[in-house]
Amino acid sequence: MKYRHLFFDLDHTLWDFEANARVTLLELYESLRLEERGINDFDLFHKNYLAHNEKLWERYRNGYIKQEELRVKRMSLSLLDFKIADDKLAREMSVLFLNLLPTRTILFPYAKEILRYLQDKKYGLHLITNGFEKTQHSKLKHSGLDDFFKEVITSEGSNSLKPNKDIFDYALKKSGASKEESIMLGDSIEVDILGAMNAGIDQVFINHLGIVTEVKPTYTVTTLKELEEIF
């Protein structure tokens, strides 16, 4: 068995961020009566939120903005798309969203089954996530994934962020794993795959979206079940 330690990403890899964010935003849309405030197209609001969130996370990873700015600005920018300049509302939405989102339980197909399969084969399963400590542990607990992972390495806990090499080095040290017996599994070429490459760790690109890339990961799969062909 070449690999002994498997390091998973969480959001967009096992836990379906887009689907869970949609359910949460829809609840806020209805409870805060955002249609009456001028947001007459929920699908567009959701789409814009995801776009703003992705761009702000990139700025956060690069050290340009702080955690609190990311959390509030993704809401304020989504509101501004509908000509709503309301900082108080954006902050209220940010708090409610962060309270509700981690309780959502939508996983990608076969997520629990593949983790159980890998666990039964005696692999050491760990997480490396850029998500916030409290939020990520809450997601794991509510979605029933917490018992699968021996170590959960977050950006806050490691004081680093993927794709920086430091967070991978921290994860190896904390789990007692060597680079040679470890592999990173994630959905992001830039964050998970190139980050692991730079740290000297093999990778599995979990390409749920069928993205075309010139990067050549160690392995590529389009579904979680395909991991059974590798491990």
Radius of gyration: 18 Å
Distance between the termini: 8 Å
Biggest sheet: strands side by side, in what order?
3-2-1-4-5-6
* Low-confidence regions: none
- The secondary-structure element order is EHHHHHEHEHHEHEE
Instruction: Please estimate the helix content.
Output: 40-55%
SS elements, strand count: 6
Seen as an oligomer or otherwise, the chain set is single chain
Could you give a short account of the major beta sheet? 6 strands, parallel
Shape: elongated
- The assigned structural class equals alpha/beta
Commentary on this structure:
It is elongated and about 60 Å long. The protein is 47% helix and 12% strand. Strands 3-2-1-4-5-6 form a 6-stranded parallel sheet, with helices on both faces. With 231 residues, it is of the alpha/beta class. Helix 9 (189-198) links the parallel strand 4 (182-186) and strand 5 (202-206). The chain has helices at residues 17-31, 42-61, 67-80, 87-100, 111-120, 133-142, 155-158, 165-175, 189-198, and strands spanning 5-8, 124-129, 151-154, 182-186, 202-206, 219-221.
